[in-house]
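User: My instructor asked us to take a sequence, write out its structure as tokens, and then describe one feature of it. I'm not sure where to start. Here is the sequence I was given:
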Amino acid sequence: MIKKLFLPVFLLATGSLLAQSSGEKTAVIAVIQKMFDGMRSGDSAAVSSVFDASARLQTIFTGQDGQPALRSEGIEKFVEAVGTPHDQVWDERIWSYDVNIDGRLATAWTEYTFFQGEKMSHCGVNAFQLFKSENGWKITQITDTRRRTGCQTEPNMAEADINELMDAWHHAAAVADEDVFFGSMAPDGIYLGTDASERWLRDDMREWSKKYFERETAWAFTPHDRQVYLSADGQTAWFEELLDTWMGVCRGSGVLQKTADGWKIRHYNLAVTVPNEAINGFIELVKNTPKKD
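Assistant: Let's start with the prediction itself. The structure tokens for your sequence are:
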């Protein structure tokens, strides 16, 4: 009887923990969003309510002398500035949330772009720390970075950037641009070819394919019907696409990761497509093909 009951009880407990975790992450995000909503509306009371009394703000930046700098301050001046009338709306747009929780400690990493009215001011990341008090989650510290280049301005830019990268990657093979092709892949990126033996790390593939990239065209695949999917934190993407090739229509799929240098391909899988009505003939062909030594 104990053995029969263990699995359902375990599954119920696991489901309960997952639900609690999801609920806590939602609660953490709600606190952060309340702060940014208060900034947009100039509501200093709303902003003040999300902070613990000991909270502080930190900014990491490069000074005019070119040296790295860290500036710290309490929240009083920030709250006061929010409530002081200003002509333009302070609009900090958050593009992703990566929330982690252990008991009463939470961290949240958010990518942002700050606008003054309709004008972009700067962008970077916020690193939040929060404490779960008797009154709910409170922000104890925010450390941000700031820059004025490479800033996202639209919610769907990630998908556009990925499509641009993948199209350029395929084009690089078509024109034998070795630097762009392999530069688009992560150093530990993996490429799976159509043969079962074709599994390469990036640099191994670079060595193997030198003879192809010495030609005017390494190989020419034309992608279409690509679908891109993004993780909740906006740091990982996966995709599927069809390719017009000399082998007929193939399917490519893979995984990308967002890095300091932009999106990089971590994994790519190239597969030949076989119509269902031709699968029996394909199986016989494979059976009768001599195996490699």
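For the description part of your assignment, you could build on this observation: Confidence is low (pLDDT under 50) at residues 1-7, 10-14. Try explaining in your own words what that tells you about the chain.
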